Each structure stands twice: as structure tokens, then as C-alpha cells.
Amino acid sequence: MATNDDQQRIRKLALTCPELHLSTEADVLQSHGQDWTRFREPAAAAIAFPDSIRQVQDLVRFAEQNQLPLVPSGGRTGLSGGAVAAAGELVVSFDRMRHVLEFSEIDRTVVVEPGINTATVQQLAADKGLYYPVSFAAEGSSQVGGNIATNAGGIRVLRYGLTRDRVVGLKVVTGRGELLDLNRGLVKNATGYDLRHLFIASEGTLGLIVEATLKLVDPPVPGKVLLLGIDSMDNLMRVFAQLRSRLELSAFEFLTDRALHHVMNANRLPAPLSSVCPLYVVTEFDCPDEQTESRAMACLEECSAKGWLVDGVISQNQRQMKELWRYREGISESISHFPPYKNDLSVRVSRVPEFLRRMNRLMNEICPEFEVVWYGHIGDGNLHMNILKPETLDLQAFEARSHEISEHTYALTRELGGSISAEHGIGLLKQPWLDRTRSSVEIGLMKELKKVFDPAGIFNPGKLLPG
Ligand code: MLT
Ligand code: ZN
């Protein structure tokens, strides 16, 4: 809840920065005080909508002097509570800073404000005959500033890497209101510590991202999508290795039969294959000519002959590509109403079969009462494990039970050298478990770094780092 003190500070801010657009309207506090997580009630004191770097700097200086906690907010599609304001904070929304500032054909870069949609950047790149490869289901709503703050991944990481790999320049306002202009779009810059990378994945705890220079790439050659049915994780990995050695894969995603059930149900989709399988893969490969398609078909036949593949379908045109992708991209939304307790785990790709085998055994032992839905970016070792809330359990009791399960999940993830968050971030929800994935020495150093960039501790308090 926002206290009288919080409200007084907001009034003082309005007087100090009269040009800054501030809102305390109930529906804006509600919409901008939360992200897609459903485990915390929003309780922001106000929402600020700066429209220039200068306004962001003035706001931060005020916040530093008046101990006003700030929650940076993008498209609010996060799944770890990183953009939730549940304790009377001021939310800093970048909705008014969404412009394209510059495009360079020679550098193949675009300079944007942080509030621009991911999909708008993709479209801009396409209009210039290029490609922005960060792609995920929430791209129509998510903003580039948030993508950078969480180092967003998505379905094309296998080929193009993460958001980090696209950021060649970053302007950031630190906790003292200073403006850093980092790397300035350079390809090579061997002048010591690359501070840019500290802000990427910092979840808004070190500074506010106010401008980004993004590197675009060649447009992809025409592709085809395969949806495959497979009977075991070992066979899935065999098929992955086989396809990867013969084709240029740009995505390799998996889903279980439970995930397929939910996405079909929610979207009234027909079964994609005539066979029913425990596991499915959606994969895309470059297919510029008929020889490549024949090579793909021969490869699939070989996989079938070896008993690795049960069934499969290949797209024949753009429309079918989109339709096949829906079976993977629609899953998250199809289960969002339960709501799910989301785990965003990663291990090295080679350890995925062992990890999933042991996780399934563990879940059957410790929480047979819950439905667990798996899907994710198996080609890069990132698996989304969603525990669905039964209707009979209230949200609090479900969260408490899910936390008990997390102790076991994270112990196994740690044993296999993995991470408790691959792309969703730590935020508010995973913060109590940061030490399951980072050593105490690392966490100590992270806290020291936080003090350097944000001495007054105003940026996203309570998120990512333990207090
Ligand atoms: C996805 O891969 O679909 C997204 O990360 C969202 C989710 O995990 O639900
Ligand atoms: Zn994902």
C-alpha cells in the first residue's frame, strides 16, 4: 500500500518536475503496477511517464535525494514479478519514449528509445530488408528496454543468441542521475570493462535504460517448419542431433502431450498429427530450394527407420508455417488462467534428457496432485516447467506449496549445474532462491556493484538481489 509519506513525496515530485507526466488514476496504478505474474497485488504510489532523457535524469535525482523507490516498467509481459510495484513505489513507464531515433544501413543498426515494442523493431528491420531476430510470443506487447533489462531470449536463440548479442550501444541513467553512453554502436572496443553488459539482465536494479543501439542481421532465407511426434527424450535428442547435422536449424522447441492438450483446447486447434505421442517438437530450418527439402525428408525417413521418430508434418507454405508455430507459441497463454507457477530452468543441452527424466520422477514423487506442463527452448537447454493451480486450492496456499516444490526443483537444477532462470529473470518471485544458482561470493560482488551504480538503493528494491 502507498503510505501518506509516499503520497507526499509524489506531490513534491510533481512540484519539482512540473513537466513530468504523473498518474495516480486507479486503473493506471493497476495496469502499470504489475506484469504478467499473478502472485502479487500491485500497490504503486504513482506512475511516471517521462518523455526525454532529461526528464528521466531529473526524476532519478529527485528519487535519490528523497529516497523514493523506482520500479522501471516496459511492456509488463515479465513472468517473475520484476516490474511489479507492490510496496508504494513510483513506477517509471517508458510508454512515451518509444521512438526510432536513427537507422544506419552501413552499420546495420537501429537506435531506439526503450519503450518501443519488440515487434515494431522487427517490422522496421524487415522494411529495411534486414532482420531483428529476438522473437517470442509476447513480442507484440513487450518493449525493448524490458527485453534488455531481462536479456530476453525466445525461440531463435539457437541461431542468433539472446538480446545481449544484439545490443551494441546503450544509454543508461545511473542512481545519481548521470548519463552513461556505453559502447556507442562500436563493433570493436578494447578499452577495458564493458559496462554495457552489466546493465543487460540487471532487471532494472542498476540503472534506467533510456536508449539502445541494436544490431540487425541478414534476413533469413525461406524456411520450413516441422512438427514431429516422438516417444522419448533420448530419441528427441537423437533427432535433434541428426537434423542439426544436415540442416540449418533456426529454432528447435519442444512440448509435451499435456502442453499440446492445453494449446489445442484453448485455441480449438485440430490434432497436428494422427499419432498421439508423449513429446512433440516444432523446429524451423532454412529451405531455400527443393534439394534442401529432399535432404530434410531423407533425414526424417532415416530417423523413422531408426525408430527415433513416430510421426511428423512439414509446412507447405507460409500459412502452414504460422499454423504449426501456434502449437508452440500459444501454450503460455493457453495455461495462463490457472494460473501456473512458472519455472524457467536451464541446463547444458547435453544434460537435458537426464534432467527431464529426474525431474519427472521427482514431480511424481513429491507432487502427484498437480498437473505439470513442460515446454520450451530445448535446443538451447531452456525448459519451462509450469505447475498448474488446481481450482480447489487458493492462490496463497498454491504459492506456498509451489515454494516447497521449488526447493527440490532447484536442488536438482543445481546438482546438474543449471540455472533457476534462463530468460524470465529472478525478479520478485525467484529472489529468495538466487543462492541456488549463484554463489555467495557472486551475490556479494553483485551487491557491491549495485552500491556503485545505485548508492541510494532506489532502483527496483527487493528484486533480483536479497536485501
Ligand atoms: C515461452 O517460451 O513461451 C515464454 O517464455 C513464456 C512462458 O514460458 O510461458
Ligand atoms: Zn520461453
General description of the model:
By secondary structure, the protein is an alpha+beta fold. It folds into 4 domains: 4-96, 2-Layer Sandwich (Uridine Diphospho-n-acetylenolpyruvylglucosamine Reductase, domain 2), CATH 3.30.43; 100-215, Uridine Diphospho-n-acetylenolpyruvylglucosamine Reductase, domain 3 (2-Layer Sandwich); 223-332, Alpha-Beta Plaits (2-Layer Sandwich), CATH 3.30.70.2190; 335-430 and 437-448, 2-Layer Sandwich (Alpha-Beta Plaits). The chain contains 15 helices and 16 strands. β15 and β16 form a beta hairpin. It is globular. The protein binds D-malate (MLT) and zinc ion.
Short description:
It contains 15 helices and 16 strands.
CATH architecture label name of the largest domain? 2-Layer Sandwich
Question: What is the CATH level 1 assignment of the largest domain?
Answer: Alpha Beta
Largest sheet: 7 strands, antiparallel
The tally of beta strands, per DSSP, is 16
Bound molecules: D-malate, zinc ion
Strand content: 15-25%
Number of helices: 15
Give the domain tally: 4
Tell me the span between the first and last alpha carbons.
20 Å
CATH fold name of the largest domain, please?
Uridine Diphospho-n-acetylenolpyruvylglucosamine Reductase, domain 3
Please give the radius of gyration in angstroms. 23 Å
- Helix and strand content put the structural class at alpha+beta
Principal-axes shape call: globular
Mean pLDDT: 97
| Weakly predicted, low-confidence segments | none
Give the helix level as a range of percent: 25-40%
Strand line-up across the major sheet: 13-10-12-11-15-16-14
